[in-house]
Amino acid sequence: MNLGAFLIYFAILLILPLWAQSRVKNTYKKYMKVPNSAGMSGAEVARRILKENGIFNVKVVETKGFLSDHYDPRKKIVRLSSHNYHHSSKAAAAIAAHEVGHAIQDAEAYAFLRFRHALVPVANIGSNMSFFLIIAGFLLGATGLIGIGLVLMSFAVLFQLVTLPVEFNASNRAMDQLVSMGVITSSEHPQTKKVLNAAALTYVAAAVVALMELIRFALMFFAMDD
Fold first, then answer.
1. Quick one: which of 126, 138, 197, 217 could link to 152 by a disulfide (CB 3.0–4.6 Å)?
2. Which residues are listed as membrane-spanning (predicted)?
């Protein structure tokens, strides 16, 4: 890889995630100031969707942090950041519904979600160790180490790729629930979709970066082997 291509490659690695994060923050800050037509807080939206879907073993609680919202499948808890928990903005409704979308996936044993959970242990090992094994392998000329590192990195990349259908499916479920419950009107649909799409960009960016790194190291490995 020549210097120009090398610089372009690393510019993409740096800029893509930063752009995605900026898009999420800007979209969220815009729609956190716009109330949803139902006047429901994120917590109320989450609890109503759970009730409408017959899910009574999942709690909805407030958590600290900015955009720290997530669903914990082990403890069966939907955690919403303070604004989304208390306020009735379009952003709060969208994100609360999205996280409950994961709870619905869990209740229905959604295949991609189950597969992602199964990948967690080996993906964590891959994320933590693969880079060091690959670099050590190149420095020592140990192809075996590089091969192990690439395998472990492949599991981490697979986790990122499997995350995409999980997140997009949760967003689709969120939109369906918000519309069917009357939390948003047809005119609010595009605005709510913008919030969910912006959030999805972070997962797309992470998957692209991870895949690019795997391909780069794999090409270097095969070039070394030749």
1. 126
2. 6-24, 131-159, 200-223
